[in-house]
Amino acid sequence: MPGRSDIAWFKATFGRQIEAAVGGTVFDVNFLTAVACQETGEVWPILRRDPTLSVERILELCVGDTIDAKPGGGGRRAFPKTKADLLTASDGAAMFEIARQALVDMARYIPSYREVAKKPGKFCHGYGLFQYDLQFFKVDPAYFLTRRYAIFGETLGKCLQELRSALNKLGWANRASLSDLERAYVGIAYNTGGFNPAKGLKQGYFNGSKYYGEQLYDFIQLARTVPMDPSGQPDIPAPPPGHAILPPPTPVSATGGAYVVDTRESTLRVRSAPAISSPPTANVIGELPDGYPVRAVTGAEKNGFLEIETSLSGGLLRGWCAAKYLVATGAGTAPVPVVAPEPVPPDNGIVAVIMPRKAGTITRRTEPAGAHSLNEPGQPSRTGTSADALRAELAAIIAWLAVDRAANTRYQPHDGLTFCNVYAHDFCALAGVYLPRVWWTPRAIEKLARGQTVEPKYGDTIGEMRANDLFRWLRDFGPRFGWRQTGTLDKLQQAANQGGIGVVVARRREDGRSGHIVMVVPETNDHGAKRDASGVTAPLQSQAGAVNFQYGTGSANWWKGAQFAESAFWIHA
Are the C-beta atoms of 284 and 271 separated by less than 8 Å? Predict the structure, then answer.
């Protein structure tokens, strides 16, 4: 699989040409780099390391796809299904000789193709870095017969032509911009000819472990960590081991009038539609504090609501607010501030704290829950340097914690008590992310903020954290420990799918009653989020609570229940 050094070579060699070609489109260099990684990433990263090969020869050898139609059904469905099918076309014999020799020449350098190249009837169906398919031979034979796929501008042009066709199929031809997730959807249509929103990225060619869409999105994010030039800056800094590649917070793009929330006595609900739903929380997507800045989208009221955009703890919110609680500020074009999470936790002032323990004591899953963190021998962790490794490590953490195993008493509900907070803390701790099991008291925070040293003492300077407390902690302290909000379930699930950490947390309306927090975890081939045409409707979750489960989607929109005062989605790399 191509890595950062391969992508750096690709961008240095072809990046400026791609940049010029995609100007004025919804595509960018990172996306086209990802397509090349996905289509011929088993070929050019090997070829580029051979000092005897010129760039021109590398391009000529970027061929692949030897799958023919199977006699009993299955395999290739497009023309040419087999050698015999190709030979029926005009100039088919000449094309077979080129296609056959292309396979033989490429296989000299690429070990994975050597066995198939020994079969005399086998030939390549895909041509060029972006794999223009031989099914188009009947309408454009000269492209293949004159080997125009060996010219980068030609193969790039064919790729952009097919990507524009995929845009049309998705109904996005007039879009001014696309997110990386949407670009991956275009890539799926490029690969398959269509796209089913209910399947998300799990579409396209399946290599036995991952789908085309999943792999393509991984490559897009990896490409964003590599600058165009060695001295330049990447879109996303390469994360340290054990952390996922996550995009930076999305800035506010609305250019309408500037307003601030003016409620005096409560937060202001942001709704997905200009109406109060039934129940009232059903269409709430966020809540804004009194005095919070927002930008109008158009400035036109509808049913007494104004469509706004803002950024809340790093999460972009776009929705409708009651216009009577918004006051124009006349701030002109001043941007709405966007909170970015700190890259490393603080090492002075208000720092992380854990429950002290006596030397030599072990806290185990099989014991009742307490304030101590787990410290069993052989605990799994998250140290990977690729999305695949991080996902596998999170799956291992879920399996090891085995929240639904009766023997793991730490998480089992009893006597009206549930332990979602304990499970979320343990999950995050094993993944190398701080979510407190205990936290400083207000008096201790005052001393720490003044630079004083405070010793953690249970009941004096620290106390246990329930789900309601965690909701407030994430809001007040989360960004300084690497957390940020995200505004949609699609972004929340995709962060988890990249090997990052995601949570949904809801604060109970009655403060003495239990709130709830769940982990949002990477999708697998056996467990997935729920989706419809709009995207994710229920993320894949792992929780302790009244019911414990390793993987599930829970009750629909449980965080919008009338028992909860407010809720939020948080992510961490």
Answer: yes
Q: How far apart are CA 303 and CA 323, in angstroms?
A: 9
Question: Average pLDDT over the chain, rounded to whole?
Answer: 97
The C-alpha atoms of residue 181 and residue 312 are separated, in whole angstroms, by 21
pLDDT at position 333, please? 75
For 495, the token pair is 């962060």
Q: Nearest-CA neighbor of 227 among 16, 538, 389?
A: 16
Q: How far apart are CA 172 and CA 178, in angstroms?
A: 9
The confidence score (pLDDT) of residue 72 equals 86
Q: Where does 97-142 show beta strands of DSSP type E? A: 126-127, 132-133
C-alpha closest to that of 193 among 129, 126, 133? 133
| Cα angle 232, 234, 237; round to 5 | 125
Give the span between the Cα atoms of 350 and 449, in whole angstroms.
Answer: 6
pLDDT 10s digits, 437-466: 999 999 999 999 999 999 999 999 999 999
What pLDDT score does 330 carry? 85
Burial of 371 (0-12, 13-18, 19+ CB in 10 A): middle
What residues contact residue 353 under an 8 Å CB cut-off, 6+ apart?
A: 436, 438, 439, 440, 456, 462
Conformational region of residue 145, where left means phi above 0, alpha means psi within -120 to 50, and beta covers everything else: alpha
Angle, CA of 526, 530 and 532, to the nearest 5°: 130
Q: What is the pLDDT of residues 424-441, one digit of tens each?
A: 999 999 999 999 999 999
Of 428, 301, 319, 408, nearest in space to 363 by CA:
408
Average pLDDT over residues 381-398: 98
* Cut 0.90: pTM above it: yes
How far, in Å, CA of 523 to CA of 382, rounded? 17
